[in-house]
Amino acid sequence: MAIWNEAKECMSRDELENLQGKRLVKQVNYVYHNVEYYRKKMQAVGLEPGDIRGLEDLNKLPYTTKDDLRETYPFGLFAAPQSEIVRIHASSGTTGKATVVGYTRHDIDVWSECVTRALVQCGVSKNDIIQVAYGYGLFTGGLGAHYGVENTGATVVPMSTGNTKKLITMMKDFGATGIMCTPSYLLHIAENIIEGGDLDKIKLRVAVCGAEPWTEKMRQQIEETLHINCFDIYGLSEIMGPGVACDCIYHKGLHVQEDHFLPEIISRDTLTPIADGEVGELVFTTLTKEGIPLIRYRTKDLTSIDRTKCECGRTTARIARFKGRSDDMLILRGVNVFPSQIEAALLEMSETLPHYMIIVDRVNNLDTVEVQVEVEERFFSDEIRELENLTRRIENVIKTAIGIAVKVKLVEPKTLKREEGKSVHVIDKRVFD
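RESULT FIELD:
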């Protein structure tokens, strides 16, 4: 099994933690002297760079949140001078000001290295032809994946999003063996491939998907539909972009590039570190970042961590498939609900298609939840009683999964909107005073 950088991906735990400690000390010193916002934040709690002597002092450092990036918009957290920033990316800013991040030439090189490691552990080699169908532009997905594919030595086809028919044509004509895109978009592509009778005309063997939450069941469904290997890649623009972590052929967690990104799992309630294996919020400290280094950045992603050696030979820590995001959590009638719980329940049923929409509203001070679910065409030609029976079964499955009753509305295939970027699964119409 190929490993791109064995020296870094397979070093002993002691060696790795020694390296992380040295890099943490250097990064804190760099941030303190180059970012006024961080310097004031550290001084406010009585911290100086000399107080951080290794990993054992990590918990002395204050957390960073997305609000910190918005408060310092656009360049207030940049540590490198503008003359050394060679690229800028930004989030969409749908919930406020855009989150702006900058990269030095060194940062771009590290990013390419990390994506390359991820691709190699997914089985990609220089003999592959990879279509990158993440959006290019300010979103980190397209260019992040692009540079990684090139660094691997594989051929990159910069498809971006926007024309599924053309993507499939080029997939056939170019003999593409791999694709990088969101999992929901890949399902849409698969639908079109099958409808066009093109399944036996494609050479696709691997997909590397990310940029949105998805379940293990969905991964298996993609693999079975397209007869390929499908992998989960993780990243966030604040830390780097795609390539922060990725799973391997054993699918037992996503390997974190720990020599560059120091992970912690903390309790959502106490904000203190919790034991390996327990579910909490993922926190990252960048260890080699020059443009916009971040200290203890709270991702809001909920997962657990495993620091034991993987069967693939890598010793880097693995984070479990995400349970959801703390800011995606819906509180419905006093119960905490994650959309991923509903998705997992739906995918357990053979009658449902992997497309759904959750519509939340409030009527007479009571939360209402309607889950619109696509089912196969044949159910709409059956007796009404069969349709009603299926609706009740789905409602029971969801109630068992989340603990509250919902209304299920069955809709025909392709009724729900398909997204080429990140999919939207929740519409919350409630108004909170």
